[in-house]
Amino acid sequence: MDTSTHRGQRMPRSERRAQLLEAAQSVFVERGYHAAAMDDIAEHAGVSKPVLYQHFPGKLELYLALLDEHCHTLERLVREAMQEPAEDNQDRVRATISAYFDFVSREGAAFRMIFESDLTGVPQVRARLDSLELACAEAIADVIVHDAGIPDEHAMLLATGLAGMSQITARHWLAAESGLDRDEASGLVTALMWRGIGSLPIAGGERSEAVHG
User: Fold this and answer.
1) CB atoms within 10 A of CB 164
2) Which pTM does this prediction carry?
3) What is the pLDDT of residues 57-75, one digit of tens each?
């Protein structure tokens, strides 16, 4: 009986794929995309290189598969934030910002593959990043249009600004390693954004919410 279970070939395909993606991410984070080699990833995963190539024809395909997973996670967090029951629009702004802070804090170095990738000039990567930005902005804009009753193009501009500020401030908070905990940092950004969004008119001409302070 073969006791080399670490390199065994009987792992279900979906589990093997997940194992290889986890190994690839570790190697990409440690060495960077350009310095990483398929040999390194296979060794880290404990498989032969032919097994790795059975699942992914090359390093870029591995990277794109990881990128797809992380983009899907962030989009899901933003859409869930927009769908959560909320007493007022300030709760929705808070939920949106929290989604980005949650992503950067719990996904480890994964967020860098989206926000700090050095492969943004690669067409397949750029297309995925553009699609993610559009999907997140549209999810936010749908709520803004419904609640504020403003034109679609205005809502998309505001939604893009909210998403952009959320991800930039979340990245800064994580990199700064300050004494601010996640909820406190997210709350500060919420207060800043709400000063502007809270003054938008709702359908009917009234402001969407009183601006406090």
Assistant:
1) 14
2) 0.81
3) 999 999 999 999 999 999 9
